[in-house]
Amino acid sequence: MRTISAADHLAFLNSQSSASFLQTPAWAQVKAEWKAESIGWFSGDALVGAALVLYRQLPKVKRYLAYLPEGPVIDWASEDLGGWLNPMAAHLKSQGAFGIRIGPPVVTRRWDAAQIKDGIADDAVTTLTQLPPGERSQVGASVLSQLRELGWQCQSVAGGFAAGQPQYNFQIPLAGRTEDDVLAGMNQLWRRNIKKAAKEGVEVTVGTAEDLPAFHALYAHTAERDHFTPRPLGYFQTMYAALQGEDPDRIRLYLAQHEGDLVASTIWIRVGTHTWYSYGASSTEKREVRGSNAIQWRMITDALAAGAGVYDLRGITETLASDDPHLGLIQFKVGTGGEAVEYAGEWDLPLNRAIYAAFQLYLKRRG
User: Fold this and answer.
1) Cα–Cα distance for residue pair 339/112, rounded to 1 Å
2) pLDDT at 160
3) Least packed by Cβ within 10 Å: which of 100, 173, 219, 259?
């Protein structure tokens, strides 16, 4: 295994059916405050695996946490993951890493919308994991077992959010389905709201980089209303330029307008057959015209038209408790008729145990 060029890295990803956008070479430009490296696994001359590594430097010393968000892109079905991960660990240690954090893009369990709806209705059920899954992945179980045997440590925390990326996502399967199939799978409220938006005259268009300030103004309004800290406009401008520069159809900005007013705006990302709803914003005014439903439906139909097999609404918590403030988010997503998907989560491998322990303490103190 060795360092590879961004061009070779991208060519490898293009040969795969899909990979996380966090593993694209362009993502290194988005996270410019981190040192970045593309690495590759070779079988002879053939590139058979790749990863984007982001190096987070410790304060004042040149030692790093090597972070591979939702990666690496390797054969996770292998019965010898040590054959993949041990050479990677040796390479990253030689680059000054005191520890490694990975996010295997491997599904472990799935729950369909009907199961989740029943769980929400049952007061005895407070978390997703209390429900028997509709599907358990043998590959996922093997990955978890092998990681433990190899000395990796799971970083999952309460609520289902790992140290970096969410462990639980909500996705709409699209492979082999038509628009009518997907619409029929939605609940009555979603279908009614999509129809209402059309009747009210909500228009959804694909914007350009010039529309990012309008998106950001609405996003900042959403952040204030929903009590989260917004990212600055510059972050989205960098993200848009980097991803579009890598592939003209990697990222799209959507705008939903009603009588000249911007009522919703979203960012859609695609790598191969996987599409994501990455960021969203909506106005408090004119909520009755259902711009959020209209813009989601447009992104879903565009994902189908692009040949995507998955439309990913990204993270959810595992809570199903009626008094939890996160319940509304999962209820909104469950209405699409998709499924909750549990991934393997994020895992750490300490390479220098003393420095790694000090880093963990630093993170706890920082809050």
Assistant:
1) 4
2) 41
3) 259
Instruction: Round to whole Å and give the CA distance between 119 and 113.
Output: 10
Task: Please give the structure tokens belonging to residue 50.
Answer: 């790749």
Residue type, 145: S
Task: Tell the burial category of 138 from Cβ atoms under 10 Å away from its Cβ (0-12, 13-18, 19+).
Answer: exposed
Domains and CATH numbers, the chain: 2-103+346-366 (3.40.630.30), 108-137+168-343 (3.40.630.30)
Query: For residues 106, 111, 116 and 122, what is the CA-based torsion angle, rounded to 10 degrees?
Result: -110
Give me the count of residues in the chain. Answer: 367
Residue written as token pair 């190899």: 150
Task: Give the Cα-Cα-Cα angle 139, 140, 142 (nearest 5 degrees).
Answer: 65
Per-residue confidence (pLDDT) for residue 164, from 0 to 100: 75
Q: What pLDDT score was predicted for residue 159?
A: 46
Question: Which among 343, 342, 349 has a CA at the least distance from the CA of 85?
Answer: 349
Q: What are phi and psi of 160, to 5 degrees?
A: 95, 0
Backbone angles phi and psi of 52, in degrees to 5: -95, 125
For residue 20, the Cα-to-chain-centroid distance in whole angstroms is 7
Q: Strands, DSSP E only, in 207-260?
A: 251-258
Burial profile 329-348: b = 16 or more Cβ within 10 angstroms, e = fewer: bbebbbbbbbbbbbbbbbbb
The stretches in the chain having pLDDT less than 70 are 157-163, 366-367
User: What span, in angstroms and rounded, lies between the C-alpha atoms of 216 and 281?
Assistant: 8
DSSP secondary structure letter of residue 162: -
- Cβ atoms of 316 and 159 within 8 Å: the answer is no
